[in-house]
Amino acid sequence: VSIxxxxxxxxxxxxxxxxxxxxxxxxxxGMLVDNSIVxxxxxxxxxxxxxxxxxxxxxxxxEVGMAVxxxxxxTIAVFFPLVFVQGIAGQLxxxxxxxxxxxxxxxxxxxxxxxxxxxxxxxxxxEAQPLDLKEPKTKAGRGLRAVRMFLFYTIPTLITxxxxxxxxxxxxxxxxxxxxxxxxxxKSYQAIEKMYSGMLRWSLNNRFIVLTTALLMFAGSxxxxxxxxxxxxxxxxxxxxxxxxxxxxxxxxxETDKALRSVQNNSKSLQNVQTTFAVAGTGNQMDANPExxxxxxxxxxxxxxxxxxxxxxxxxxxxxxSSLQQVPGLQYKFSRPxxxxxxxxxxxxxxxxxxxxxxxxxxxxxxKLSENNRFADVKSTMENGSPEIQILxxxxxxxxxxxxxxxVADRIVSNVRGDVATRYSWRDRKIDVLVRARETDRAxxxxxxRLIVNPNSERPIPLSAIADVQIANGPGEIRRVAQQRVAIxxxxxxxxxxxxxxxxxxxxxxEVTLPTGIFAEIGGQNEExxxxxxxxxxxxxxxxxxxYLVMASQFESLLHPFIIxxxxxxxxxxxxxxxxxxxxxxxxxxxxxxxLLAGIVVNNAIVLIDLINQMRMKGTEKLEAIKEGGKSRLxxxxxxxxxxxxxxxxxxxxxxxxxxxxxxxxxxxIGGLLFSTLLTLVVIPVMYDLLDRxxxxxxxxxxxx
Length: 705
Hints:
The protein is α+β, with helices and mostly antiparallel strands.
């Protein structure tokens, strides 16, 4: 019911079924039943006390209703800030956050309305009273009545009885199949309950030891963080990659194609390589991308066999690097198809005005990075350009002849490259008609020098009269960032994470002496990671604050929400341990998992503290209320933890494409939830006993009446 309602809400908010929204549904599956479990368990507890079906449904749902609402709102509160997160994190998880929010709202409504109603159905059925129907007098009336009875009574009755019979047998078969598991669960729960009661009594008598142990565990987990590693987004393995390369400027396309075919033939012999696709040369230096233009450029796309792992993909790339290094003068760069537009893992922006100094600095930094085995495919944008014809204008001479330099430059471009005069329509195509000088008039420097720069004047002036024309190697490209010239040194990573790479880059920059007026700073994914993490830290802080506000309004207290918030650092211990054990690096996905964890882990403590407060309001002593409350809430807490964990298990294991993007979140939430549940059942009662000094006014049913 909740999932169907979620689909309706997704449709109303223009959220499509994609990898993130479906991931949100998968994420919410385990939490959808949590509210219903708490309500049903409390109704069952009232039934065991001997109350009637309707009374148990009413009192059981009413007793935990506010706690269920508060726990659901705390989870929703942590997703709300994600909608406003900037950067890649906001683009990634907006649909997922809204989907989980919709599913939790639907499950809350189902838990406090539909579940109590269904629970109240049962008991002794009243005898059906026959309807006093008058016998039709006419034959047509009796026939119509027979048809009506057959359509609206006989058929529905047969369908109902058939379904009842089917479900009864399904129930019997299911009961027979699951009876051993139920028996094992009951026996295990009885043992856990007995052990927990003793452990809780010991913890309440040894509060200092319990809190010190929890503090040491938290400090130890924080010490593990530097060993886990940091990256922006987990590397997605899609079974294909591309290598882009450049030969020295001026290399004819025939030589480029020959070198590319050699690399392609070598790659076909590699293990797990299924298909290859090569492109040699594209466009020219006047109408192409500076990085992907000219006859000396080529690209090879490699597709691996289905089912190839990320390790096999890395092995194929390393083998291709070995063969590419044997080609003299070849520059190459590996890349993977990406779901998102990211910069290179490592980018160093070297800024300044002098192009020669920029090139010297870029080459020096690139050489320094190449000495470190961590970095691969090191490349500087300030590389040697292709041979080009440069026209150096004498502005004074041009002004003396009454010519504008920009007009002359435009006229030269029109003669050499040409202008689109019109378009020729042929079938469904539009073909440009290019007008420019004859090839014989622009085939050499001498011909270009003789180009007339004032064709409509009485005295024709050749270009050589106002400019020097020469052949030189220009810069490969001139990039600007914030209106400032920059050289960008980029590199991929052979191993390690982005955080370690940033440290090595800082060390390398400190060892390179930059020319005067040249400055360097780290950009690329490291910059994007810093921006995303800052935004997510703000979202996490806002989420914790919203969770506190929700709990403060529920308990009408500032102390009890403060006690419950101690579950968050306890969950952090489990999350960090899970990441460390599974060798999962900290990324944006892990941060989203931590934000989600902040809303989930407080739910168990909310239900526990709420029951303790209710028992104290009825006259139970504080220690006794803590012991009985912990014992009463042990079963629903364990059940909700198990359902959420099992619901997230497929995400953590990582099935299907894009698993690298989902698994870190599942691992984070499962580790934090399991660990916090174990500590919540012990540490939170101890904190409550230590900090709560409130004297409750005993309320009885008579006084209330």
